[in-house]
Fold this sequence. Notes:
Helix content is 40%, strand content 18%. The chain is of the alpha/beta class. The chain has one domain (9-127): Response regulator (Rossmann fold). A 5-stranded parallel β-sheet has the order 2-1-3-4-5, with helices on both faces. The longest helix is centred in the N-terminal third of the chain and has 13 residues, at 17-29. It is globular and about 30 Å long.
Amino acid sequence: MADTNEKYKIYLVDDDRxxxxxxxxxxxxxxMDVTACQGGNFVxxxxxxxxxxxxILLDVVMPEVDGFAVLETINRENLAxxxxxxxxxxxxxxxxxxxxxxxxxxxxxxxxxxxxSEVLERTSKILKGEIE
Length: 132
């Protein structure tokens, strides 16, 4: 189990309510301050209000605005300059991973191959600078 020590502020972004709730519970139980954002437009609105989180876990495939478009907008509008963005997606093609890196993502986790506790652990390590 990841030992978080600090209370990190995290935005979870996904269009799947079940997954949002599941990951939110996991991160809250680890002592993190979690905001669940159902979709790309919602997270962009939250970021434009100011006070960005320490980390954003961002799905790629979402209706309206996909994760790559969200990341491009965050970069273009400088909405979260110190926030680490981790892609959390079922899209695992090399081209997607490469695109995420080019857009400045701090990590890429494939949902289908990581249980929630592993997602929490990897997120904690990225936040602490233990893994790139």
